[in-house]
């Protein structure tokens, strides 16, 4: 299948997704639609519902109503591991690398390659991350000896080791320096340029401006606004919700 026919195809979507926690509306009629090859960022102020949407997409939380589709398959009631088998790669906000294992061993246990896809390009993505994040040369080091940025990079590479089609990252640059954040963004952009669909949940408007094709702004559980980085960052309404002035 050519890249051309592949793009503009919806790879993951939600339809009128709702989720309440007690009286709190964490997702309200969310209709999200991400195309193959997109670099989408989900942003919004504290409590906007970003992590809730992440959890609903990957199946950690079950929606009260609505539908989720991955690669045209309804997955609303599927468990996280079943969605991962369809090609979802997940990076949670907390680090999931095995602390007592080396970089090399962490990578080899992630190397389950369960996806049926163009393996060559998936292998290229994995190799790109390995070399850019300098993980090969440091392979013998234990995860617990790594500085925070390296641990984040290890986790991103661990995801790529399973050849995902969609990568969902929750605040992948949290705790990184400005330079490390910029560098991470540049590597993610190169991975996206190979056709990998990336969805990043992020707080930081600066980072998303740098990487996103399209931004979805969440507010009080709803999609508040959607557009290019320029459109979103110039919007007075978006500035207002960030400053709590709405
Ligand atoms: N498990 C839960 N139980 C009860 N309330 C929850 C739960 N998870 C989220 N909420 C509430 O749902 C709303 C949305 O939370 P969510 O964590 O999705 O926001 P967020 O956009 O990720 O915020 P942050 O930027 O602070 O991480 C908040 O009001 C939050 O307190
Ligand atoms: Mg959150």
SSE map:
Blueprint: H1 3-6, E1 10-21, E2 24-30, E3 33-35, E4 39-43, H2 50-58, E5 65-70, E6 73-74, H3 80-86, E7 88-91, H4 103-110, H5 119-132, H6 148-160, E8 166-170, H7 178-193, E9 197-201, H8 205-211, E10 214-219, E11 222-227, H9 229-233, H10 236-242
Parallel strand pairs: 4-9, 4-10, 7-8, 8-9
Antiparallel strand pairs: 1-2, 1-3, 1-5, 5-6, 10-11
This protein binds adenosine-5'-triphosphate (ATP) and magnesium ion (MG).
The site of magnesium ion (MG) has 2 residues, from helix 2.
In a nutshell, what does this entry contain?
This protein has 246 residues and is of the alpha/beta class. It has 10 helices and 11 strands. It has one domain (36-62, 79-242): Rossmann fold, CATH 3.40.50.300.
Structure, described:
- By secondary structure, this protein is of the alpha/beta class.
- The protein has a single domain, classed as 3-Layer(aba) Sandwich (Rossmann fold).
- The protein has ten helices and eleven strands.
- Strand 10 and strand 11 form a beta hairpin.
- It is globular and about 50 Å long.
- 41% of the residues are buried.
- Magnesium ion binds next to helix 2.
Keywords:
37% helix, binds adenosine-5'-triphosphate, Rossmann fold, 10 helices, 246 residues, binds magnesium ion, alpha/beta, five-stranded antiparallel sheet, disordered N terminus
């Amino acid at each position: 299948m050519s890249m051309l026919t592949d793009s503009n195809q919806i790879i993951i979507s939600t339809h009128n997704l709702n989720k309440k926690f007690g009286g709190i509306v964490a997702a309200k009629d969310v209709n999200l639609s991400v195309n193959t090859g997109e670099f989408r960022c989900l942003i919004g102020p504290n409590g906007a519902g970003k992590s809730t949407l992440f959890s609903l997409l990957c199946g950690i939380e079950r929606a009260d109503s609505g539908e989720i589709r991955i690669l045209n398959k309804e997955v609303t009631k599927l468990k996280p591991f079943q969605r991962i088998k369809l090609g979802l790669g997940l990076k949670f906000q907390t680090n999931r690398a095995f602390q007592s294992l080396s970089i090399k061993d962490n990578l080899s246990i992630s190397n389950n390659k369960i996806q049926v896809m163009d393996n060559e390009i998936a292998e290229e993505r994995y190799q790109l991350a390995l070399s850019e994040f300098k993980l090969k040369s440091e392979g013998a080091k234990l995860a617990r000896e790594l500085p925070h940025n390296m641990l984040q990079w290890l986790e991103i590479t661990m995801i790529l080791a399973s050849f995902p089609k969609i990568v969902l990252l929750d605040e992948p640059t949290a705790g990184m320096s400005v330079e490390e954040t910029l560098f991470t963004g540049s590597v993610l952009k190169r991975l996206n340029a190979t056709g990998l669909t990336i969805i990043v949940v992020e707080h930081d408007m600066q980072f998303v401006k740098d990487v996103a094709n399209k931004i979805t702004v969440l507010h009080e559980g709803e999609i508040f606004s959607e557009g290019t980085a320029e459109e979103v960052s110039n919007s007075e309404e978006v500035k207002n919700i960030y400053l709590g002035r709405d």
